[in-house]
Each structure stands twice: as C-alpha cells, then as structure tokens.
Amino acid sequence: MKRVLILLFSLLPASLIWLSCGYSSPTGNTQTSGLKFRAFITNSVSSGSGPAGVYIINAAKDVRGNVSPIAGGNTPGMMVLTPNRGRTLVYSGTGTQFTDNQFTIINNTSESAAGHLTLPGFTESFVVSPDGSATYVAVPTAPVVGQSPGVVKAISLNTGAFTGEVDVPAVRYLSIDHSGNRIFGFSENSDSVAVITPSNIGIGNAVTYIGGFDHPVAAFFSSDDSTAYVVNCGAECGGTQASVQKVDLTLTQCLPSGVCPAVSVPAATVAVVDNSTMYLAGTPVPNPNPQPCTGETTQATSCGLLTVFDLSTMTVTNSTPIIITDGYHNRIALGANGQLFIGARTCTEIAPPVPPQGAETRGCLSIYNTLTGAVVIPPANGDVTGIEPIAKRTVVYVIQGGALRIYDTTTDALEFNPNNPNNPGQIFGFIGEFSDVKTIDF
Questions:
Q1: Lowest CB count within 10 Å: 114, 297, 329, 396, which one?
Q2: What pTM, to 2 d.p., does this model score?
Q3: pLDDT of residue 3
Q4: Which residues lie across from 307 on neighbouring strands?
C-alpha cells in the first residue's frame, strides 16, 4: 500500500555500534557492477544462479550484472528507494523458519550493505523522509509493555541506528506527506488514522488520532500538503464500504476534524495517483455473490474491479465496471504507453496441469490500458510481489510467482529479448525465488 539529499553512509564508531540496538557492521561488495542503468532484485533463496541476496541487473539490456549479490538478510524481499536514489532499504522476512526480520541499508554508489538492523517483528510498510535522513517502519506485532502490540520505529539513515519509536497498536501501513512533517499510520481493524509528527518521536506527544473512516489503508497528499485523500478498504478489510475520503488539513472545511464525507467505490485495497486521477483496485466482498467476471471469457467465477476516480471533483469517472483479477490487490504502477499494471495475492488461479493448445492460464496480474480501456490478463500464474516500470523504455519488470517477467507495454506481452530469444520476458540463466524489483538509476 500503497511514499532527498543524502551523505554517503559511513561506518559508526565502535561506541555507537554498541548503542544502536540491533545494528551490525556492514558487509558487501568490494567491486561494483559499473552499470549506469541498474535495477535491484531481491532473491529470497539460494539457487543455481547464486545465493540469496540483492542482485543487480542491467536495466538497459535486461541482463544480469557481472557482480556478486549484496547481502540483505536470509530472505530479502520488499525494497524502498530513498527519494534521491542514494540508498535502497531492504526488509528480510517471509514468515518461514528462516525469517530474521532484518532491515538492510544499501549504499547504491558502492553497491554494498552499509548496515543491518533487526526489527522487533515483521513489516510490510516503511516510508522515507523527503531529505533521506530517516525512515519510519510499521511493526504491527512489536511488543509494548502494558499495551497492545504495534509501534512505528524511526531509523537514522546517516548512522544506521534506531532513534526512537511511537506506540501505534496494530499499525500496518504508513503514508508520508511531501514535507516529511506528517505521517499517517493505518492499523488493522481500525476506523481511525494515527497522525504522527516525526520530529516529536521519542520526546512525547508524537501521535494524535482522527476518526470517521472505514478501515483506511493509505493516503495521498496534495502537492502543498493541505489535503489528504484517504483510501478506505471497507468491507474487504472487515468494514462496511470502500471509499475515498478527503481530509482538509488546514481545518477550514469539513469541521471540526477536517474529515469530509466519504465517496463510495466498489472496492479498494491499493491505489496510485496520476495528476488528479486516482486508480483504485480491490475485490468486492461477496454479498451475497462475488463480483462476476462479466464480459471476460474465463473459467474464474470471481473477479476484482478497478475504479477510475477524479480527485478534483471527488467522483468516479468510469461508467462501466472495469473487470480485473480477484485476490487482495497490493501492487500497482503506471508504465509507458498508459499501461497500468495491477498485482494481487491469493487470487483465483487457473493452471491446467497439462494445458492443451489455447487453454486458459490465469494468475494475479492485470494490465489496464488507460487510453483505450482494454484489460489484459497475462497467461501466468502466481502472486504478484513486485512491479517496476523501466524509465525511458517501454517495458515493465514484474515479479510473479517468484519469477521475473519483462512485459512490453506496446503489446502487453512478454518482451522479446535478443539475449534470450528462446525464453521471451526472461533474463538468460537468471533463476531464483524473486520477491521485489526497483530501478536505481533514472
């Protein structure tokens, strides 16, 4: 769900290492790839192509970089890039016996791990301050003495140390405004938003709550940070109705709290904003029947919906339902040629054991053409865990079912790679259980 000028990371003095609570000294490459246009991809298992770690890809030519992977914990997965692209933050934790809840800071210039910390539980959301000096990590299961579990941990990216925390029970997702002065925290089974002031973390009065929502999961801020647009998950998350809700942070409208009336949408667990247009994806909860796959030729009996929403008028603009795959949607990105890639997990899979010619194969990826309204469901199985449009190219990297697939946005099909002509959309000899992908250079 759904978010900076930096000095290069330097090693801490020994005295500070002892004080940093979970910090371990950096290890990594002594030789860089020399590539000018790189993508990082997390591989969570050791395989024929190498050990678990963060691998480097030549994003201009779709080939693996000739350099060892960067250490990123036992099972590196989700990544976040700092705004100036100087560092990449990696979380290692899959819920298996190998989970280490390790948080790694990678120096993108040296292509090496600049530091590791151990989180007090799992995370699936962390945001970075606009100046790149800090990151804030939601840890919903972190123990809190005398209170319900859940904290937001603050980490200095200049020292690689924890600098404080604020208690927010069951906090799962975070959104940060453009100034870095305000973070919205969203908790499991809650109709409130925790408004966190980062500068107050560790010194008291860092969090206040505003109510009036319906199981919110994300927020997007106007360019001047005067307005927030909150995405309510509603019924799909145990509430009543998915919606978009405007919050006037100047407190001149919708008094006394600034929370304006909600505008209903069919379903919403993930969203992306392009100028004043918000695209929301979700799966309507069966009541009494699931969303039918009207207009699609598919064996699936349940589908999801994409909604096009105008933030300037707070209205839904698509006149007919936009049918996509079902599942819990948590990945979305806009690629070249107006192609919107939407990923989900736990969707309806159609995977014939021995598919005859022309048999349907269906997984958790949908591609929506924002220019024509057409929807493509690629014939690939598996959860989608990473989507990354490649700048200055007409391709999008997608991690689905643990595999890297490269899509051509001019055809919405797998890219033909002359370096691997027999396997479209793949990188030759690159095998692993991949989790996430990010382009480092622009």
A1: 297
A2: 0.90
A3: 35
A4: 280
